[in-house]
Amino acid sequence: MRNFLAFIGLVLVVVVVAGVYRGWFTFAVDSNKNVTIGVNGEKAITDSKKGLETGLEKAKDIADNLKKDDAGTPSPATTAGPNGR
């Protein structure tokens, strides 16, 4: 259970850091030490969709390359052994 909570905490930290870097979240502190957190949900959704599309394209390319490699490789049943059998 402790490992699971640590994993959830790590995922949360990664999302916040990536979100700040990508401009999804903004933090501001005024002179009275009030903290303001801004969320740009539209940008987060747009970036997420774009990233998902890119990931799907990469996965499709990898699958196509694997199919191409498998098509050119003879199966063990049709390959002649060292004695030509």
Descriptive report:
The structure is a single chain. This protein has 85 residues and is mostly helical. The protein has two helices and two strands, in the order H-E-E-H. It has helices spanning 2-22, 41-72, and strands spanning 25-29, 35-39. Strand 1 and strand 2 (35-39) form a beta hairpin. The N and C termini lie far apart (57 Å). 1% of the residues are buried.
Write the layout of secondary structure elements.
Layout lengths: L1 H21 L2 E5 L5 E5 L1 H32 L13
Antiparallel strand pairs: 1-2
**Unreliable stretches, pLDDT < 50, 5 or more residues?**
none
How far do the termini sit from each other?
57 Å
Structural class, by secondary structure, is mainly alpha
**What value does the average pLDDT take?**
85
Q: What's the oligomerization state? A: single chain
Share of helix, binned: 55-70%
| Strand residue content | 5-15%
Spatial strand sequence of the major β-sheet: 1-2
Q: How many helices? A: 2
Largest sheet: 2 strands, antiparallel
Q: What is the N-to-C succession of helices and strands? A: HEEH
Overall, the morphology is elongated
Number of strands: 2
Compute the CA-based radius of gyration: 25 Å
What are the main properties of this structure?
single chain, 85 residues, mainly alpha, 2 helices, 2 strands, elongated
Give the gist of this structure.
The protein is mainly alpha-helical and 85 residues long.
